[in-house]
Amino acid sequence: MAIKVNLDLMLVKRDMSLTELSEKVGVTISNLSILKTGKAKAVRFSTLNAICEALDCQPGDILEYEITGEE
């Protein structure tokens, strides 16, 4: 997939654990883990909004489009 999830990087930058983020956002640790590992097929805007609010960041800090060169 060409979308890379940088949630782990933002957690390190904000010195926050996945458990802390889960509590602040109201999303289970397992669902955040699926997102963090890039295995999620979709993310709700409300969830993305809550994550950005908790981490004080922009959606582009978490999601990145990678050009793979494969067409």
From TrEMBL:
<protein>
    <submittedName>
        <fullName>Helix-turn-helix transcriptional regulator</fullName>
    </submittedName>
</protein>
<dbReference type="InterPro" id="IPR001387">
    <property type="entry name" value="Cro/C1-type_HTH"/>
</dbReference>
<dbReference type="InterPro" id="IPR010982">
    <property type="entry name" value="Lambda_DNA-bd_dom_sf"/>
</dbReference>
<feature type="domain" description="HTH cro/C1-type">
    <location>
        <begin position="13"/>
        <end position="62"/>
    </location>
</feature>
<dbReference type="GO" id="GO:0003677">
    <property type="term" value="F:DNA binding"/>
</dbReference>
<dbReference type="Pfam" id="PF13443">
    <property type="entry name" value="HTH_26"/>
</dbReference>
